[in-house]
Amino acid sequence: MGRELSLTSELLKNKFMKKIPRDAEASNVLIGEVDFLEKPFVSFVRLSQATTLGGLTEVPVPTRFLFILLGPPGKTKSYNEIGRAIATLMVDDLFSDVAYKARDRDDLIAGVDEFLDEVIVLPPGEWDPKIRIEPPKKVPSAEMRKSVLNLNELGQMNGSAGGANIAYVGPLPWYCSDIYDGFHIQSISAVLFIYLGCITNAITFGGLLGDATDNYQGVMESFLGTALAGTVFCLFGGQPLIILSSTGPILIFEKLLYEFSKNNSIDYMELRLWIGLHACFQCFVLVLSDASYIIKYMTRFTEEGFSSLISFIFISDAIKKMAGALKYYPINRGFKPDYITSYKCECIAPDQGESVKSGSHQCFNQIVLIKCYPFNLTDMDWTQLSKKECEKYGGALVGNACKYVPDLALMSFILFFGTYSMTVSLKKFKFSRYFPTKLRSLISDFAIIISILIFCGLDCLLELETPKLHVPTEIKPTRSDRGWLVMPFGKNPWWWYVASFIPALLVTILIFMDQQISAVIVNRKENKLKKGCGYHLDLFWVGILMAVCSFMGLPWYVAATVISIAHIDSLKMESETSAPGEQPQFLGVREQRLTGILVFVLTGLSVFLAPILQYIPMPVLYGVFLYMGVASLSGIQFWERIKLYLMPLKHQPDFSFLRHVPLRRVHLFTLVQIVCLAVLWILKSTFLAIIFPVMILGLMVVRKLLDLMFSQHDLAWLDDLLPDKDKKKKEDEKKKKKEKKAAEPESDEEVGEMLQTQIYGVIIPQTEPDPVCINPPTQNQASECKYTEHFLNV
C-alpha cells in the first residue's frame, strides 16, 4: 500500500514538473521554534550556484535562496506571518531581481522598501470580494509601447552604403538557427496552410493578369514567378516570415501599361523589361541611401489603416467570389416539388438556315459540314445530348428548367461558411476542456488543414460538380508566341529605354511602400521577434527579383500583408508551463526560413500535383481567404475601438487607453481613422488605385496633423509618438510646473491646517509614519503588507 502511494506521489510530482518553467529555481522558507534561543535568529542565504538539496523541495528543483527563522517558543503565529511575507517577496519580480544582485543587508531592505512602494493596501473590513473589479485577462505592460523599429538598422550611417553594409551582415548570425528552428510539427501545419493560400492567390492573380495583358502573363507565369521569387527571398531575405505575392496596385499598373503599349504600337514585354530594370536600380539607390529610415514615421495609425484595408479586401473578394456562384449556378426560387413533372429541359436541332445567315455556327454550312464533324448531324438524336454537347454542336436548350442549376450554389455556400466556421472553432479548441493538452494544441495548430480535408471529403461524398481548383499541367508560356526570356533590344525605339525611367519611379514607390509597411506590420513589437528586421536586405532582394522576373516575363512580387500575418499567426508559440486554469503566455514566433522555402517549392511543384489538387473545391479555398482576412483583424487596436461605438459604457473592456484617455477623444481618433480608411477604399475601387502607395504617404501626413488635434499624452496611448522628443518633453515640463504651482500653499494659515495626511484616500491625524505603505501606489499589485511589517520589526 505504501509503495502504491509512493508511485502515485511520484506521478503527481512529474505532472507538476511539466508546469514549472525551464531553468526555474526554488526559494526555501524555513521557520521553527527552539528552546535554546532567547530572541529570534534570522538568516537569508543566496547560493553561488543553484543546488538540489535532497528532498527539501516538493519537486526536484535546484535551490538558490534559503530564508531561515528560528525563535523562542510562543510566537508561532508571528513566525508564520513572517514566512508568508518572505514568500510573497520572493515571487515578486521586483524583489527577486534585488535578491539576485544584493550584496549586503541594506540592499535587501531597500528591495523590501521598493516592493512596498508598489503596493496597494485594501482595508479588510471595507473590501467585499464579491464586488471587486476582475483583473484584466492580459495585464498591460507598465512600459509605454516601444517602437517596432530597430534603430541600429534604420539609423543614418556615417559614410555611404550604410544600408548595404547592414543588409549583408544582418541575418548571418541567425542563418543556421533559421534552418533547424523550422524542424517542428507546427511548421507542417503552417506550410500546408500558407501553401493553399499562395496557390489560390497565384491562380486568382494569374487569371486577372491574363485578362489584363492578353495572356502575356497568365496562371503559368504566376505559378513559376511565385515559386522563384518566394524561394529566393526566403533563402536570402532579412525577414523570411514575409510572404511575397502579387498585389492589386501591381495588377492595375500592368493593365494600364499594356493598354498604353497596345494603343501606341509598343512592344509590351520589352517596355516592361526596361521598367523593371530601372525600378531595380532605383531600389538599389534607396538601399544605399538608407531610405528605409523613413518608416520610423509610420506609426500605429498608418500600420492599422494599411493592414485593415488589405484585410477588408480579402474579406470582400472572398464574398464577391461566392456571390458570383449565384450568377453561374442560379437557384429556382419559385420551385414547387409538387410540379416537378412540369420542369424539363431538352436540346433541339438548330435551324441550319439561321446558322448560315448569322455566321455564328460555321459548321452548319452544308459546304463545310463534313469537314467540321466526321458524322452527319442531321441524323443525330438531339434529345439525348448533354448540355455541353448541345452547346458544342450548336443546338438550342428549350424548357423552363434550362436556366437553373440545382444544388451547386447552395452547396458552395455550405462549403464556404463551413470551412470558415470550423476553422474558427478548431482554433479555439485548445481552450476547451476536452482531450489532453497536447492533443488540443495539435488540433488547434492543424485547424485549417482539418477543416479543408473534412469539407473536401464532404464534397467528394455528395459528388456534386462544384467549381474545382484548376492548376496548369504543362510548363509552357500561356501565349504560344512568347518564350521564357524577354530580349531587351530590337522591338522598340531606343529612346523608350530611357523614357521608361519615369514609369519606373511609380513602380518603385509602389514596391517600396507595400514592402516596407508590410515589413513594419510583421516586425511589430507585439510579435516579440528576436532575430532582427532586415528592411534594407529585403528591399535589396525585391529589387533583384524585379529584374529577374522582368527578363523572364514573370509578374512582379512584393510583400503580401495578409498572408504574411497569417504566416506569423500559424507559427506563434505559447508557454507549456501554465498552471491549470491559467491562460498560456505568448512567447513569440518560431522565426525560421524552412516553412517559407517549403511553401514556394511546393508552389513550383503544383504543376505535377494537379491530379490531386483538382479535387479541392474553390468555395473551400474562399473560406480560407475569409478566415485569413478576419484573423488578421484580430489584435488590431483600431478594430477594438470601432466596436466601442456599439458598447454601453458599463460593458466596455478594460483597455489601458480607456483608463488614460477620455472616451470622446478615443471616438474622435477612431473616427479620423474610419474616414481615412473609407477614402482609401474608394480610391482602391477606381482607376486611381495605381496611386494607392502615394495615399499611404497621405496617411503619414494626416498623422502629423493629428498633433494639432490631440495632446501628446493621448497620442502616446492611442498611437506611437512621432520621433520628436522635444515636444513630449516640453509638454511634461509644462504639466509639472502647473502641478507644482497648484500644490504650493497660499498662506501660513493653510500650512497650519495641513496637520493631517491623506493616505490611500483615508484621512488620519499626523503621527509617527507607519513603516509600510507610506508612498502612493503606482501599480495594482496584490500584497501582504501586514506580514511584511512583522518582518521589518524583526
TrEMBL record:
<dbReference type="GO" id="GO:0051453">
    <property type="term" value="P:regulation of intracellular pH"/>
</dbReference>
<feature type="transmembrane region" description="Helical">
    <location>
        <begin position="620"/>
        <end position="639"/>
    </location>
</feature>
<keyword id="KW-0813">Transport</keyword>
<feature type="transmembrane region" description="Helical">
    <location>
        <begin position="671"/>
        <end position="702"/>
    </location>
</feature>
<feature type="transmembrane region" description="Helical">
    <location>
        <begin position="594"/>
        <end position="613"/>
    </location>
</feature>
<dbReference type="InterPro" id="IPR003020">
    <property type="entry name" value="HCO3_transpt_euk"/>
</dbReference>
<keyword id="KW-0472">Membrane</keyword>
<feature type="region of interest" description="Disordered">
    <location>
        <begin position="728"/>
        <end position="751"/>
    </location>
</feature>
<dbReference type="Pfam" id="PF00955">
    <property type="entry name" value="HCO3_cotransp"/>
</dbReference>
<dbReference type="GO" id="GO:0008510">
    <property type="term" value="F:sodium:bicarbonate symporter activity"/>
</dbReference>
<dbReference type="GO" id="GO:0005452">
    <property type="term" value="F:solute:inorganic anion antiporter activity"/>
</dbReference>
<dbReference type="Pfam" id="PF07565">
    <property type="entry name" value="Band_3_cyto"/>
</dbReference>
<dbReference type="InterPro" id="IPR016152">
    <property type="entry name" value="PTrfase/Anion_transptr"/>
</dbReference>
<keyword id="KW-1133">Transmembrane helix</keyword>
<dbReference type="InterPro" id="IPR003024">
    <property type="entry name" value="Na/HCO3_transpt"/>
</dbReference>
<feature type="transmembrane region" description="Helical">
    <location>
        <begin position="494"/>
        <end position="513"/>
    </location>
</feature>
<comment type="similarity">
    <text>Belongs to the anion exchanger (TC 2.A.31) family.</text>
</comment>
<feature type="transmembrane region" description="Helical">
    <location>
        <begin position="534"/>
        <end position="558"/>
    </location>
</feature>
<feature type="transmembrane region" description="Helical">
    <location>
        <begin position="190"/>
        <end position="209"/>
    </location>
</feature>
<feature type="transmembrane region" description="Helical">
    <location>
        <begin position="273"/>
        <end position="295"/>
    </location>
</feature>
<protein>
    <recommendedName>
        <fullName>Anion exchange protein</fullName>
    </recommendedName>
</protein>
<keyword id="KW-0812">Transmembrane</keyword>
<feature type="transmembrane region" description="Helical">
    <location>
        <begin position="229"/>
        <end position="253"/>
    </location>
</feature>
<dbReference type="InterPro" id="IPR013769">
    <property type="entry name" value="Band3_cytoplasmic_dom"/>
</dbReference>
<feature type="transmembrane region" description="Helical">
    <location>
        <begin position="446"/>
        <end position="464"/>
    </location>
</feature>
<dbReference type="GO" id="GO:0008509">
    <property type="term" value="F:monoatomic anion transmembrane transporter activity"/>
</dbReference>
<dbReference type="GO" id="GO:0016323">
    <property type="term" value="C:basolateral plasma membrane"/>
</dbReference>
<feature type="domain" description="Band 3 cytoplasmic">
    <location>
        <begin position="10"/>
        <end position="129"/>
    </location>
</feature>
<feature type="transmembrane region" description="Helical">
    <location>
        <begin position="408"/>
        <end position="426"/>
    </location>
</feature>
<keyword id="KW-0406">Ion transport</keyword>
<feature type="domain" description="Bicarbonate transporter-like transmembrane">
    <location>
        <begin position="172"/>
        <end position="722"/>
    </location>
</feature>
<dbReference type="InterPro" id="IPR011531">
    <property type="entry name" value="HCO3_transpt-like_TM_dom"/>
</dbReference>
<keyword id="KW-1003">Cell membrane</keyword>
